[in-house]
User: Which sequence fits this backbone?
């Protein structure tokens, strides 16, 4: 299994959702599900942020000339449907589906054409930054996909390849559940990552994150510190690359 991670950066005026997010730096869009066939693309996205940001992003999704992830810079005459599935004061769940025309293309469609079937997609948008994570089943060459994507995105933005990782099965793998992290610590970690607490610079401080989770700041700090300590300890205990680190140092 391989993991490909890359970032797209849309220039102003080419992507209504990116333009809306650029106005609200504390808002994010995260994919809950993304499926593609040669003819169609389906998405369910979770938008998080203040009510004004939710209004702006929802309006952008419903723009007549916007089709999620379509890379065509002019009207491609695709048929689409957008529907709000759920909304709270701080989040919005949006469903989108569109059918390709003869000129339509998108990131998932390019991946399907160059990398084959059996792909898993995960995305996260903050401002004009749009980070994609694609999980591939085997050892497919990504060269043609990257070249095709760079060519398509050239007119509307840029692309940066962030990571290509090979994952091999291992009985030593550790995760939050196998480490026995309590549910409240796992929820705290997920919320901290999703809202940018661990980014540099941070997009949210501990006080604001605690308010969003409706827990005391001291409680959230304790949960994060306990989870971090257990994860770091497990990493150090399972890491066998000390010799190479010393050689590099």
Assistant:
């Amino acid at each position: 299994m391989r993991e490909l991670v890359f970032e797209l950066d849309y220039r102003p005026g080419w992507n209504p959702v990116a333009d809306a997010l650029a106005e609200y730096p504390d808002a994010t869009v995260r994919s809950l599900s993304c499926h593609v066939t040669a003819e169609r693309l389906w998405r369910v996205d979770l938008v998080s942020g203040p009510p004004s940001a939710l209004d702006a992003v929802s309006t952008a999704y419903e723009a007549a000339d916007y089709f999620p992830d379509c890379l065509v810079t002019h009207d491609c005459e695709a048929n689409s449907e957008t529907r709000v599935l759920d909304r709270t004061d701080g989040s919005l769940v949006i469903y989108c589906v569109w059918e390709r025309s003869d000129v339509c293309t998108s990131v998932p469609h390019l991946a399907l054409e160059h990398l084959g079937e059996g792909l898993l997609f995960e995305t996260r948008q903050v401002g004009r930054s749009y980070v994609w994570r694609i999980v591939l089943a085997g050892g497919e060459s990504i060269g043609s996909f990257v070249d095709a994507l760079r060519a398509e995105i050239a007119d509307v933005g840029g692309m940066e390849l962030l990571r290509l990782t090979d994952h091999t099965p291992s009985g030593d793998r550790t995760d939050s559940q196998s480490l026995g992290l309590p549910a409240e610590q796992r929820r705290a970690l997920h919320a901290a990552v999703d809202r940018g607490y661990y980014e540099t610079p941070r997009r949210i401080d501990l006080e604001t994150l605690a308010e969003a989770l409706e827990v005391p700041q001291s409680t959230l700090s304790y949960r994060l510190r306990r989870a971090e300590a257990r994860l770091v300890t497990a990493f150090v205990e399972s890491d066998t690359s000390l010799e190479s680190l010393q050689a590099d140092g």
Notes: The chain has eight helices and eight strands. The beta strands are 2-10, 28-36, 40-48, 79-87, 91-99, 120-126, 129-136, 157-166.
